[in-house]
């Protein structure tokens, strides 16, 4: 279904680059079929053109009118300015994919002049290496085939779950923000390794292989994490000593609170934007 489709990314930041990298390495489209615009940072557009061969544009109206798939990838608070620029350039046969945290599909639908398909997606930056975990939800003008097309795009970049839209805030808190929690864990483990006497250059490969090995064990054995943890934890051994210390720091509860906070922040971003929309009317 993706054969010959053209993309227009509105917003050339981190997630845009991750998706471009993924889309190109999955062979979904050719670089010349990807147009990208920013608000003002042309240096960034030039970098993306030089590195990936995509087509930078400044005339967003023309690029939007010509694209099959428009990807909204600006910060949530910039969505109104971006939609203002696109309002008269979209047609019903196009698809808008919004990766914006918190922003409901209805807000985008209501801001445009056409009854266009809007699909809300929450990928993560691992799109770049085709290992994203992406949540998707369809807006009210989206047909099953249009949702399938979006699924096809993100399936090429990793795992996809289609959920009811209200769950996308939780997907954002869990797997959209998720890579950052893991990077933070790696930072902490490396620092701890150093404190225990292992030089950083040795700690990094040890930590990374441990991380990858654990993820693969979970995926390939299909075992519960509790069981795999039990297999590592000898009675009164080293792991138990470590886990007891994590429990003293309320590890699981802290992580639970972090994911709920991120979820609520996504909901809050949406609420603020909806209030702004009403205030403008
Ligand atoms: N980073 C991540 O891991 C993920 C982010 N997201 C979502 O993706 C969105 C973007 O995040 P991220 O890439 O990190 O943000 P960045 O700040 O890296 O990029 C945002 C980009 O949007 C551009 N922009 C702002 N307004 C406009 C406009 N009117 N027209 C065109 N471009 C515009 C900015 O351009 P300029 O620099 O010129 O101002 C900037 O390049 C957010 O809504 C976020 O919630 C979703 C999943 C994961
Ligand atoms: O931090 C953020 O708001 C975005 C959404 C998910 C990941 N990054």
From TrEMBL:
GO terms, biological process: L-proline biosynthetic process
Keywords, sorted A to Z: Amino-acid biosynthesis, Cytoplasm, NADP, Oxidoreductase, Proline biosynthesis
Entry similarity comment: Belongs to the pyrroline-5-carboxylate reductase family.
Protein's recorded name: Pyrroline-5-carboxylate reductase
UniProt domain Pyrroline-5-carboxylate reductase dimerisation: residue ranges: 165-269
Cross-referenced Gene3D superfamilies: NAD(P)-binding Rossmann-like Domain, ProC C-terminal domain-like
Ranges annotated as spanning the membrane: none
PANTHER family in alphabetical order: PYRROLINE-5-CARBOXYLATE REDUCTASE (PTHR11645), PYRROLINE-5-CARBOXYLATE REDUCTASE 1 (PTHR11645:SF49)
PROSITE patterns: P5CR
EC number assigned by the record: 1.5.1.2
